[in-house]
Design brief:
about 450 residues, transport, 20 helices, Growth Hormone, Chain: A, 2 domains, membrane, mainly alpha
């Protein structure tokens, strides 16, 4: 399995697994457009507006824990479709929401389903994908987050024209891509590794032959060393507490401004004098810039190195936010250029959210560490998103952008102090507490 060629099955599985990140970007971004109509119609206070904006993030935090537990207990394949069915139902139900409480609850449930899909889909993809392609296919899922966000802004702009109920159609629209993904996922086989682990040997061998050909047998599955679950105390006792702290802080600083911009992009651009259609289309353009930034970062991470990339990404994207804070009344073209610059340059920190945690921890604690850091970052993102409407009201757009720039400064400082360089190292060398000096010359491809 690990050395099999990349087949059509693997490509389809990667595409279908990317549905979760796509819906994540879509759900978190469409609310920013919809809020333009929701706020006056439901008479939302700044606090209620922030809670609704952050509700899906809170749900993702809860759902990731739950999804990981359930997929290990009941399997990947069944939950692979059930979680999206929940998204469909809750998305449609939003159409009839009449008060902020129900809207908050429904978006919380949608966030839980989206969050649950991450461990479910990525586990299934990782357990089928050959080792040579596992990294690129898993890492490429982040691209679909930005695709979903860009599509959400375009759809939101189109649905604003249907009248006062436009926001209802926007929020319900997530059901359409979720339905398509569910239909595509039907028939996906269960992970043979999970089946074998549960003692269902005949079923596992049947899946192996279906995917890899009649010559494949259960003997092709490598025996994996059993490891007991590692909790937070064990991570700290093992000497990785410092790395855990760095990953949590770096990850949080990299996504708090980004998620706030996605949740309230049109409102932020409106405060910067880019209103109406220009604000929504501007948000879509910025999302495309985020996507371009991630692609550029992926192409340069091995050449530039992890440590310089994360520091430069924080510093120069923070400068763009600083200028937006100092000059909130600048011409529209200047504002768009600065937002686009932030979106492209912050791509370095975005892709390192997937690279750094997996390189800096050994196999015994890697899953626990990545899950813990992801949860901590979502808490920060939810708090930041909740505070954005109040910050816009109390501080104005200039002060809000300055606060976002300050978060980037924190990320740059902690990275300058604690970020290691793992370029060109073998995985076990990068994960060692005292890694060897980076090898001279051109680093090996990762």
């Amino acid at each position: 399995m690990d050395d099999a060629p990349l087949s059509r099955f693997h490509k389809k599985l990667a595409l279908y697994s990317s549905g979760g990140p796509f819906l994540d970007g879509y759900v978190l971004s469409i609310i920013g457009v919809a809020m333009v109509q929701i706020t006056p119609q439901l008479h939302l206070s700044s606090s209620a507006e922030g809670l609704i904006g952050a509700s899906a993030l809170i749900g993702i935090f809860l759902g990731a824990f739950m999804g990981g537990y359930l997929t290990d207990k009941f399997g990947r394949q069944v939950l692979y479709t059930i979680d999206l069915v929940a998204i469909i139902g809750c998305s449609v139900a939003q159409f009839w929401a009449t008060d902020p409480v129900w809207l908050f609850v429904l978006r919380l449930l949608i966030g839980m389903a989206v969050g649950a899909d991450y461990p479910i889909a990525t586990s299934l993809l990782a357990e089928f994908t050959p080792r040579r392609y596992r990294g690129p296919l898993l890492g490429g899922l982040v691209v679909m987050w930005f695709v979903g966000a860009a599509v959400a802004y375009v759809v939101g702009e189109a649905l604003l024209n249907v009248g006062d109920d436009g926001w209802r159609w926007m929020l319900a629209s997530a059901a359409l891509p979720a339905t398509i993904i569910v239909l595509l996922r039907l028939g996906t086989p269960e992970s043979p590794r999970w089946l074998a682990n549960k003692g269902r040997i005949e079923e596992a061998e049947k899946v192996l032959k279906q995917v890899y050909g009649p010559e494949a047998t259960i003997g092709d599955l490598l025996e994996e060393e059993e490891r007991e679950n590692v909790d937070l105390k064990a991570i700290i006792r093992s000497g990785y507490g410092g790395r855990m702290l760095y990953i949590s802080v770096f990850w949080t600083c990299s996504i708090v401004p980004l998620f706030a911009i996605y949740a309230f992009g049109p409102k932020i651009l409106g405060a910067l004098k880019l209103e109406g259609s220009l604000a929504n289309l501007g948000s879509a353009l910025i999302t495309v810039m985020f996507l371009i930034g991630c692609v550029i970062a992926l192409l340069g991470v091995n050449r530039m190195g992890r440590r310089p990339l994360v520091i430069h990404s924080f510093v120069w994207s923070g400068l763009a936010l600083l200028l937006l804070g100092i000059f909130p009344d600048a011409p529209a073209a200047v504002i768009m250029v600065l937002f686009a610059a932030y979106a492209v340059i912050i791509g370095g920190t975005q892709i390192l959210q997937w690279v750094y945690p997996n390189e800096l921890f050994p196999t015994e604690v890697r899953g626990s560490a990545v899950g813990l850091a992801s949860s901590a970052s979502r808490i920060g993102a939810a708090v930041g998103t909740y505070l954005v409407p109040m910050a816009l009201t109390d501080w104005g757009i200039g002060g809000t952008m300055l606060a976002a720039a300050a978060i980037n400064v924190v990320g740059a400082v902690v990275s300058a102090l604690w970020a290691p360089e793992t370029r060109g190292m073998a995985l076990h060398e990068a994960a060692a507490l005292s890694p060897k000096t980076e090898p001279a010359g051109r680093p090996a491809a990762v």
